[in-house]
Amino acid sequence: MFYLLSYSVKKLQRLGFATNRIGEERWVYLVLFFVVMIFATPVAQAQSTAAASFPLLQKGKQSYVFSSASLRMPAPVTVWMYSPTDRPDTLPVVIMLHGAERNASGYLDQWSRVADLYQLVVLAPTFDKDNFKGSDRYNLGNVWNEKEGRFTPEREWTFSVIEPLFDQFVKASGSREMQYYLSGHSAGAQFVHRFLYFVPNNRAAKVFIANAGWYTLPDLQNDYPFGIRNVPGIKKNIQQFFSKPLLLALGEADTDTTSANFQKGEPYSLQGANRFERGKNFFASVRSAASMQQAPLRWTLISLPGVAHSNAETAKQAGAFFRAVYYPTSTTK
């Protein structure tokens, strides 16, 4: 700024507009200062807007905006990101899905120590309540049009955000990662396991889900969202659902049923009395269906003593699972 002002004053002096008297020269500096600020402010704002459109190579927490011309989304998606180093392009990527309160930023804060420990970049897209209203738009992926009784076009699915979001990060950061880890807690776990049904050719290397309120069972006798009989291409792709390396973590103390976000009554209650029971029954259903399909199952179930509906506690298990070469199966009650 000082260099620009000095240069401008010298130009004016050469043109005869400035004098050598101190008072008048100060006046010229003052006028030029305001002129420069008027023109510089829009430039600074434009630079700030541009920076918010893609992830930066920096340590810590930041946010940027994801949008795609190939998708029909109600609004661009804010993505919160945490990197333990200033070289996120060199680290494995986790895409983490938030719960029903849509607090991606808060969820990411609970992941930061896990990211530091296991050296992971965490991306947390925000599917806000205003633009992605209700569980249909988020938990269920916006795949079904209830009024018309048909599946929506794939470019309208909320599930369809995940793969291009990963591509955007890779391109913008210069990362060489070919795959990502996928994680979801609570409503995020609902999103993630259903994503596997609808986007079978995804690039998730490992998947982690914890403490979902209810599930879409691998049931070919009932329609979506409780079964998968009418899911497009499911008979061809169901084996990919079973073969994906997945860890299902359940808090043994996640038994509270008073939350407004916990679905009560039938048909939800048929899956179990609480989140812990429903998770165990879901895993049993997956194991039974894989056996009937004679499909290899690469899923693991663990229960966490003393853990309730906690993203912070289950995130520790996710980090360990993503970075482990071998993850043992523990028993459940």
Describe, in short, the structure shown.
By secondary structure, this protein is α/β, with parallel strands linked by helices.
Total beta strands:
10
Radius of gyration: 26 Å
Strand order of the largest sheet: 1-2-4-3-7-8-9-10
Largest sheet: 8 strands, mixed
How many angstroms does the end-to-end distance come to?
A: 68 Å
Number of helices: 9
Order of helices and strands: HHEEEHEHEEHEHEHEHEH
Shape: globular
Which percent range fits the helix content?
Answer: 25-40%
Task: Could you tell me the CATH topology label of the largest domain.
Answer: Rossmann fold
How much β-strand is present in the residues?
Answer: 15-25%
> Any low-confidence stretches, pLDDT <50, length ≥5?
1-51
CATH class of the largest domain: Alpha Beta
Description:
By secondary structure, this protein is an alpha/beta fold. The chain has 2 domains: 2-50, no CATH class; 54-323, Alpha/Beta hydrolase fold, catalytic domain (Rossmann fold, 3-Layer(aba) Sandwich). The chain is built from 9 helices and 10 strands. It has helices at residues 2-14, 22-51, 104-118, 134-137, 162-173, 187-198, 234-243, 275-292, 311-323, and strands at 60-66, 77-83, 93-97, 121-126, 144-145, 150-151, 180-185, 204-210, 246-251, 299-304. The strands form 2 sheets. It has an 8-stranded mixed beta sheet with strand order 1-2-4-3-7-8-9-10, with helices on both faces. α7 links the parallel β8 and β9. α3 runs parallel beside α9. It is globular. The model is unreliable at 1-51 (pLDDT under 50).
